[in-house]
């Protein structure tokens, strides 16, 4: 059950990663467009629109900051996904070990029952 829960959690994380990747792409696209406009204003109007230039630069800087924050968040989500995948593997390995131990104990129990049956049969004879 725990493995299934972690797998479901991983699917949710993967969905969030796709959403964030899309948002990151859109932020980059907007940043590129603003940067292009910023460069055009700078080239065409030089110092005439200093306030506009400063505003555009601030917007570009803020978008760049948000893009960097998205990168950090994506990195953390990917680390969480990796950690969860390791947990799934470890739990799967542990489940296999427990199953093998259970099977060994069952074989021992059957062997003891067989030996007990043989002992009773010898005593009866």
Total number of distinct structural domains: 1
Q: Choose one word for the global shape.
A: rod-shaped
Q: What's the total number of strands?
A: 0
What value does the Rg take, in angstroms? 32 Å
Content-based structural category? mainly alpha
Helix count equals 2
| Unreliable stretches covering 5 or more consecutive residues | none
* Oligomer classification: single chain
Can you give the mean pLDDT?
A: 85
State the distance separating the first and last CA atoms. 51 Å
Percent helix among the residues?
Answer: over 70%
Sheet of most strands: none
Please, could you describe this protein's structure?
By secondary structure, this protein is mostly helical. It has one domain (2-94). 95% of the residues lie in helices and 0% in strands. The chain contains two helices and no strands. It has helices at residues 2-45, 50-124. Helix 1 packs antiparallel against helix 2. The protein is rod-shaped and about 115 Å long.
Question: How is this fold's topology laid out?
Answer:
Layout: H1 2-45, H2 50-124
What is the compact description of this entry?
The chain is built from 2 helices and no strands. With 125 residues, the protein is mostly helical. Residues 103-125 are annotated as: Disordered.
């Amino acid at each position: 059950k725990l493995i299934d829960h972690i797998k479901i959690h991983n699917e949710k994380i993967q969905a969030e990663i796709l959403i964030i990747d899309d948002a990151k792409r859109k932020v980059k696209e907007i940043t590129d467009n603003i940067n292009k406009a910023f460069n055009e204003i700078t080239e065409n109007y030089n110092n005439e629109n200093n306030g506009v230039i400063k505003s555009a630069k601030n917007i570009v800087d803020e978008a760049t900051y948000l893009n960097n924050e998205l990168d950090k968040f994506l990195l953390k989500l990917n680390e969480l996904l990796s950690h969860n995948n390791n947990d799934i593997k470890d739990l799967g390995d542990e489940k296999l070990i427990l199953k093998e131990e259970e099977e060994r104990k069952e074989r021992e129990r059957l062997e003891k029952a067989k030996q007990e049956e043989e002992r009773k049969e010898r005593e009866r004879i």
